[in-house]
Specification:
It is built from 9 helices and 15 strands. By secondary structure, it is an alpha+beta fold. It has 3 domains: 77 residues, Glutaredoxin; 131 residues, Glutathione S-transferase Yfyf (Class Pi), Chain A, domain 2; 141 residues, Jelly Rolls. The strands form 3 sheets. Strands 6, 8, 9, 11, 12 and 14 form a 6-stranded antiparallel beta sheet that branches. A 5-stranded antiparallel beta sheet has the order 7-5-15-10-13, with helices on one face. A 4-stranded mixed beta sheet has the order 2-1-3-4, covered by helices on one side. The longest helix is centred in the first third of the chain and has 36 residues. InterPro entries: Glutathione-S-Trfase_C-like, Glutathione-S-Trfase_C_sf, Glutathione_S-Trfase, Glutathione_S-Trfase_N, GST_C, GST_C_Theta, GST_N_Theta, GST_Theta. Belongs to the GST superfamily. Theta family.
């Protein structure tokens, strides 16, 4: 049975697996999984990967998820050149160091810029406020500086003189905001020179093939019909649905689900469950979900760890699909501490969305735009 790879090349981790396999002449069957169409939630894909994420592989009776695990598996099974995942203890440690850092260190910032520059303006019909854009850009620039100064340094590649899995995983992440029209290489001579070396090692033809989809994103978004996404309308007429949090009758300090109340009653395309903790839809499709929780922190000297997350329930299983974290230093006076995120998710009739937060006892439930709310927009089928 041929090796099967379940991939969507709009995904950075999928591109790294695809490039690695192609570069090392590993024969495989390309099984396209459209994340934008929600195919990862289908019954067949669930048999391959219960985590419901791409990439995933099936090698005979053996199935494996998570891009880093897949890359290491392929390197060892097919005994690829040592430089990809070095046997040398310290070189391998350098590769593992970057692979351990990158998920929260660069991916979230590159993906956020893609959202802010392309998807939110198109879908919501408004420009992202300058302070939010500047903050996101500052986070991304901080990560790029670390890659230049710490991980690359004075070396040709992250682990030394030759390309490794670390460089491959890094380049696909850094190319994500480029797809939004942000030239992250401008003015960064070290990063640009490193990119040129990585591209030369991979081969320009393969590099361009893997990235052609993401680099065409601006044109793709430009051709989207946003006429029904603006002024409170969605393609189905479902509208922009705001939902505000309700103060819970119990006092919670730990992580737990929030209860909600509709801002208005005509929620034709979605509804709250009886428990008021879960949202379901009456029309399957793509939904843009914006969640904000504002914590009202007391005066004090210590710190507070705050968390916000969105859970997606399907087939009696629940996955975390978006989250935000912050550690706040208490001040001499009370302060507001907002956490927020936005995510585009395909939701079916049987699926449910729920929001969890910690510490719930500190949440501001006042009904105002900057407090605690969910805004949901149905974008397309």
């Amino acid at each position: 049975m041929a090796l099967e790879m379940y991939l969507d090349l709009f995904s950075q981790p999928c591109r790294s697996v695809y490039i690695f396999a192609k570069k090392n002449n590993i024969s495989f069957d390309f099984m396209k999984v459209s994340l934008l169409e929600g195919e990862q939630y289908g019954e067949e894909f669930g048999k391959i990967n219960m985590i419901r994420k791409a990439p995933a592989i099936r090698d005979g009776d053996f199935c494996l998820a998570e891009s880093i695990a897949i890359l290491k598996y392929l390197a060892e099974k097919y005994q690829t050149s040592d430089h990809w995942y070095p046997a040398d203890l310290q070189k391998r440690a350098r590769v593992n160091e970057y692979l351990s850092w990158q998920h929260m260190g660069i991916r979230m910032h590159g993906s956020k810029m893609f959202w802010l520059r392309l998807l939110i303006p198109k879908i919501m019909g408004v420009e992202v406020p300058k302070d939010k854009m500047d903050g996101a850009l500052e986070d991304l620039e901080g990560s790029l500086k670390l890659i230049e100064e710490k991980f690359i340094g004075d070396k040709p590649f992250i682990a030394g003189e030759q390309i490794s899995l670390a460089d491959l995983v890094a380049i696909v992440e850094i190319m994500q905001p480029v797809g939004s029209g942000l030239d992250v290489f401008e003015g960064r001579l070290k990063l640009s020179a490193w990119r040129d070396r990585v591209q030369a090692e991979i081969g320009k033809e393969l590099f361009d093939e893997a990235h052609q989809g993401i680099l065409a994103s601006q044109e793709m978004v430009k051709n989207m019909d946003s006429s029904k996404m603006q002024h409170g309308e969605s393609p189905s007429g479902a509208g922009v649905i705001p939902i505000h949090a309700l103060p819970t009758k119990q006092s919670f300090a730990e992580l737990g689900e929030l209860e909600w109340e509709e801002e208005r009653k005509e929620m034709d395309s979605m509804f709250l469950t009886k428990s008021r903790t879960h949202i379901q839809v009456t029309e399957s499709g793509w939904y843009l979900v914006f969640v904000q929780v504002t914590f009202k922190l007391p005066a004090g000297k210590e710190t507070r760890d705050l968390m916000l997350r969105l859970d997606f329930t399907y087939s009696e299983q629940t996955d975390q699909i978006a989250s935000a974290f912050d550690t706040r230093q208490l001040l001499d006076e009370e302060q507001d501490a907002p956490l927020s995120f936005s995510v585009l998710v395909w939701v079916g009739l049987e699926n449910r969305l729920s929001v969890l937060a910690s510490h719930r006892a500190l949440i501001d439930y006042e009904r105002r735009p900057v407090s605690t709310c969910i805004t949901i927009i149905r974008c397309s089928d």
